[in-house]
Amino acid sequence: MSKTVRVQEVVPYSLLARGYDRVMAYVDYSAWACYVHRLIQRFLPGASSLLELGCGTGSLALALQPMGPYRYHATDRSAAMLAVAREKAACSNSPVVFTEADFTNYRVAEPVDVVLLLFDGLNYVLEPEGICALLRSTHAALRPGGLFIFDQSTPANSLGREADFEDAGETEAFRYVRRSRYDPVRRLHTTLFELEIGGQRYRERHVQRAYTQREIEALLKTQAFQIEAAYDNFSYRPATETSERIHWVVRRIS
Ligand SMILES: C[S@@+](CC[C@H](N)C(=O)[O-])C[C@H]1O[C@@H](n2cnc3c(N)ncnc32)[C@H](O)[C@@H]1O
């Protein structure tokens, strides 16, 4: 008789955090940071206070902060991701401050020049009302004229190379199997991470929604934001409905 292996469901990122950087090793955060730095220079030269939302383990923050005279505050709702970010910041003597916050409902003590939200954070918001709440909080967090720079992964990305993806690997913290499925009708992208730690198996279920460019544009109009640019995937070409990742630069106008 085969033994039933119990898989314990845990909160997204609570265990993945310890091996996240290894699982995401293909991401070139220095190149991403250069691109974001150039966007800031182009649209708000002289910006000095940055707030990053959904910062994860802080890889972008630690690469971007030294590129300018940036006072950098980074937030995430996952305590486990922030713990890794703080360890990395301490090792590199970084002045970036990390705190826990849900980006759909947050406040800042002082308005900032630039708010950032990169690498699919927005896609974790499953309902348009949640995006409106994120935009409301972000509008209030920016000084007039300040920028919100964010990206989104699109249905074209989910339908393309990321659909029905599967891989497996090992980090210092766990062995993992990652299975990704896309439901094109509901436009929900579900990634299951099965993690094995010391003989025990755990599962994290990450659900993201693929919004279209038009949907995000319409939601931006619910707040006093002016769209400065919607770029195709780390370029300066205008995004189209076939873009897999869109980088938005929007400005608080009042
Ligand atoms: C794909 S990871 C990206 C992390 C990081 N930006 C990077 O580039 O590696 C998405 C991050 O968004 C965070 N997140 C998702 N929803 C959130 C919310 N409502 N408020 C704050 N953080 C959130 C998760 O905890 C996770 O760290």
UniProtKB/TrEMBL annotation:
It holds the Pfam family Methyltransf_25. It comes from Rhodothermus marinus. Keywords: Methyltransferase, Transferase. The keyword Repeat does not apply. InterPro entries: Methyltransf_25, SAM-dependent_MTases_sf. Residues 51-146 form the Methyltransferase domain. This is Class I SAM-dependent methyltransferase. GO terms for molecular function: methyltransferase activity. The keyword Methyltransferase applies. GO terms for biological process: methylation.
